[in-house]
Amino acid sequence: MMRRLAGLVLALSASQAWAADTLRCGSQLISVGDRSSEVLQKCGEPVSRDLLGYKRSADRREEFQVEEWTYGPNGGMYQYLRFEGNRLKQITSKRGN
């Protein structure tokens, strides 16, 4: 019973995505807040770039593009980088299928 429960918990956690503030690209580190040009220079071209839409600024005076870049698989992991207005806002990693 305990072994089955442990296996279920492990399987569920393996399929979950988690967020981080930094990501290693070779010998370089990228961080939330970096410009998209810095990320491109350090990590190279992503496997894919998806335009997710547009978002309004807090004061609603301007609109900016929201993109998601995908890197991987690296060791079975995919990294999803969300950019808002050419700034890295979120780094999410998820094990590939």
The CATH class assignment is Alpha Beta
CATH fold assignment? Beta-lactamase Inhibitory Protein, Chain:B, domain 1
Radius of gyration: 16 Å
What's the rounded overall pLDDT mean?
85
- Helical content stands at 10-25%
Total helical segments: 2
Beta-strand percentage range: over 45%
How is the largest sheet built, in terms of strand order?
1-7-6-5-4
Could you give the order of the helices and strands?
HEEEHEEEE
The appropriate CATH architecture is 2-Layer Sandwich
Which structural class matches the secondary elements? alpha+beta
Quaternary structure classification: single chain
Number of strands: 7
What does this structure look like?
By secondary structure, the chain is of the alpha+beta class. The protein has a single domain (18-95), classed as Beta-lactamase Inhibitory Protein, Chain:B, domain 1 (2-Layer Sandwich). It has helices spanning 2-15, 36-43; strands at 18-20, 22-25, 28-31, 48-56, 63-74, 77-84, 87-95. A 5-stranded antiparallel beta sheet has the order 1-7-6-5-4, with no helix packed on it. The longest helix is centred in the N-terminal third of the chain and has 14 residues, at 2-15. It is globular and about 40 Å long. The two termini are 27 Å apart. 11% of the residues are buried. It comes from Pseudomonas laurylsulfatiphila.
